[in-house]
Amino acid sequence: MKQAVSDIAVDFEKIRKDFPILSSELNGHPLVYLDNAASSQMPRQVADRLDRYNRFEHSNVHRGIHTLSQKATDAYEEARKKVHSFINAASEDEIIYTTGTTDSINLVANSYGLTHFSEGDEVILSEMEHHANIVPWQMVAEKTGAVIKVIPVTDSGDLDMEAYKRLLGPKTKMVAVIHVSNALGTINPVKEISDLAHENGSVVLIDGAQAVPHQKVDVQEIGADFYVFSAHKMCGPTGFGILYGKKHLLDEMPPYRGGGDMIDKVTFEKTTYNVTPFKFEAGTPPISASIGFSAAIDYLEKIGMKAIEEREYELVNYLVEQLSGINGLKFVGESENRACLASFVFDHIHASDVGTLLDKQGIAIRTGHHCAQPILRRFNVPATSRASLSFYNSKEDIDRLVEGINYVKSFFE
Ligand code: PLP
Q: Which one, 56, 113, 216, 397, has the greatest CB density within 10 A?
């Protein structure tokens, strides 16, 4: 388990009331939402901000001379400032808006990968990657002749760091690794991964989709060249995400998409491009989503990331303790460094039966391969049930889950 970090008194009962959906019913029962790793819920502060923008403030950005457009541009650009300080980037120019983690990785794979990889170069991934951090690299490898190498995972669900060191070599161009596994819950030693890659002269991308919502992330401390995440997993809207990249790398990378806003000058003979970060943001961007994301960052910062981390630490300890008492339940992923989720299986009950019967009791968990088929194959299971927490969950939610699982089991005994 990760360590608690401080003693900050925050009233999480009160905070829970910011999320109207948590007081609603599902299938005739009070909702228990434990699918936060897939997408988190949105507090009314963020929903209200989106509503206000859409009703009274909407206009296109970067182009208009009129006041409304200038106001929308200011609000849209404010998210860049907020993200910059939220993750401690060195400059606002290092924050690229994308549609999410998947889009951010595709951008790096295509823009950096296509221009830097050639036949026989190696890209190191890990066995526990989300498909979003596998498939884009495979697609670029097919075009360039680069080769994918994979860091194996131990029985506890940790990266085999000795194997990683052995994989690093003169051909390693890129190391792309998940910060927190969405399938196992493992928190990976990303600073060490990044330092080792840099000593080897390789570039590093960290998939932070499951880390940024739950802990204070400092990209300069981690040292990775690229760090990516999605707004919808951290109380923000869907369709919006971030690519953080070191400025000197972004400056030399070509644009990934062409169109309006990303240009300097266009003629039929030749187009020159805008500067970083705008050269990566073609077309009308997700304006309202960026404004909603600003509000989400404000919301999380008001609670405090340390308080969130501490709260989730307490909840996940309780979750693991309670699930451990259920006969026949086996965890998939038992790292000492576990984030706020638990994946589990039963020998004689399929995960989809667990998910369906819990849903009938108003309990939402995720079942399946969690877009991480290779790691499930590694553990010899086709699917797991995954309960993933957020700071707004409660011990009562976990008690309901345990009751629900015992009810599911009663069908199969
Ligand atoms: N990486 C990880 C670790 C994830 O958990 C997810 C989503 O579940 C993604 C990438 C993809 O995120 P998105 O669908 O927001 O692009």
A: 113
Rounded to a whole number of angstroms, the distance between the first and last alpha carbons of the chain is 32
101 CA distance to ligand 1 middle (Å)? 6
**How far apart are the C-alpha atoms of 389 and 299, rounded to whole Å?**
18
Judge whether 340 counts as a catalytic residue: no
Does the pTM of the predicted model rise above 0.85? Answer: yes
pLDDT tens digits, 238-248: 999 999 999 99
Q: Give the Å distance between the CA of 7 and the centre of ligand 1.
A: 31
Pocket of ligand 1 from Cβ distances under 6 Å:
37-38, 100-102, 130, 132, 178, 182, 207, 209-210, 230
368 token code pair: 């399946």
Q: How confident is the model at residue 63 (pLDDT cuts 50, 70, 90)?
A: confident
Q: Which domains does the chain have, with CATH numbers?
A: 12-30+304-410 (3.90.1150.10), 47-301 (3.40.640.10)
Joined together, the tokens standing for residue 260 give 């309006």
- Residue minimizing CA distance to atom 7 of ligand 1: 38
